[in-house]
Amino acid sequence: MSVHLDSQPQVIVVFLLFGLLTALSNYFSIRRFDQYPPARIFPRVSVLIPARNEAGNIEACVRSLLEQDYPDFEVIVLDDHSEDETPLILNRLARTSQRLRVLDGRPLPAGWLGKHWACHQLAQAATGELLLFTDADTRHAPDMLRDSVSALLAERADLVTAFPREDAVTWGEKLIIPVIGFGIFSFLPVTLVRWLRWAGLSVTIGQFMLFRRAAFDAIGGYDAVRNHLVDDVMLGRRIIQHGFTWRLMDGTRHVSCRMYRSFWEAVDGFTKNTFAFFDYRLSLFVIAWAWMAVVFLAPPFVVAAHAMNLPLESYPYPLACLAVIESLAMWGLAYDRFRVPLYLVFFYPVSFGLFVLIAFRSLVYTLLGQSTWKGRELAPPVWKW
């Protein structure tokens, strides 16, 4: 018995080779905060946290920030109309530290997304020369500020963004969340972005964005991205487009985060912003995800079919094996650097298959105006062909 599969295995192998080279380049070129010498002068830092219904996270986050080994900083948290005990927890913490300020969010104006409006208010209240935006579900090592500021100054950067260690507990989290790290490592050539200033291939991670205040203001801050779902990515691209210096670093030893706490929470979270990452370009989105589905799902399907004595005439088995080996190497490099358990590499077809479904769910939900986040409806965007 034979099954026909229309594919181009040679092209897939070459494509994966370029992905593997990109992953290798990123693996050795992306530096950690603690690989830089300590700064001689430490500018004042404002650590800014928007919080909406974060009662389960906010205390651990704020305490980890208040314990920073850094001479001059403030922590400002904005309660964005929480409906849980977030404001009570924040007010209690504020009584224990003069470094902590708690703001009550103003009403959401038309044309703004909720988190972006909260971050805008935080930036207006900040007094630091440097602004660190981070999320309420993050945790920070005591030397995070000292090492990250040293890295920013050594690189003469205007924005340092970093990927944290993403903690995953349930199997749903383990299968879905690491795909983001894989995508960064395999398809975003960080060195070329730096050298050639390719803003469109850059990624900025909202869980850690350390700006020079002057650069942040010069690009328009959150006012310039007030209604774009992937505010972090767009802010980073504006930094590059305006001639400022962007750096992506490894923050896994300094920052940790449990982004989502269940399978469906992860699905909903990525549904919200996957289409937005492509700047709502419909044709690019569909073509990219269809091609990637073929690249990462066809070869393991061929190998599995061969194991079940179902040869695929149009796809040579040796090329399928080579493609699977290349894929395993790419996923392994990303997972090792992002500190993801390496045994999950062998589940990459399941992980990627799930993410393809999430991507097209993101497309449908966004175009139909059914996207929501934290109890707020997200307005349909203006999409492009």
List key phrases describing it:
globular, 385 residues, 48% helix, seven-stranded mixed β-sheet, 2 domains, disordered N terminus, 13% strand, 14 helices, alpha/beta, three-stranded mixed β-sheet, Spore Coat Polysaccharide Biosynthesis Protein SpsA, Chain A
Provide the fold topology.
Layout: H1 9-29, E1 45-51, H2 58-66, E2 73-79, H3 86-94, E3 100-104, H4 114-125, E4 130-134, E5 138-140, H5 144-155, E6 159-163, E7 165-166, H6 171-176, H7 178-187, H8 190-196, E8 208-212, H9 213-218, H10 231-241, E9 246-250, E10 255-257, H11 263-277, H12 282-307, H13 317-337, H14 348-367, E11 372-373, E12 376-377
Parallel strand pairs: 1-2, 1-4, 2-3, 6-9, 7-10
Antiparallel strand pairs: 4-8, 5-10, 6-8, 11-12
Helix pairs in contact: 1-13, 2-3, 7-13, 11-14, 12-13, 12-14
3D architecture notes:
- The chain is an alpha/beta fold.
- The chain has 2 domains: 9-26 and 273-377, no CATH class; 30-261, Spore Coat Polysaccharide Biosynthesis Protein SpsA, Chain A.
- The protein is 48% helix and 13% strand.
- It has 14 helices and 12 strands.
- The chain has a 7-stranded mixed sheet with strand order 3-2-1-4-8-6-9, with helices on both faces. Strands 5-10-7 form a 3-stranded mixed sheet.
- Strand 11 and strand 12 (376-377) form a beta hairpin.
- Helix 2 runs parallel beside helix 3 and helix 12 (282-307) packs across helix 13.
- The two termini are 42 Å apart.
- Mean pLDDT is 92; it is low at 1-5.
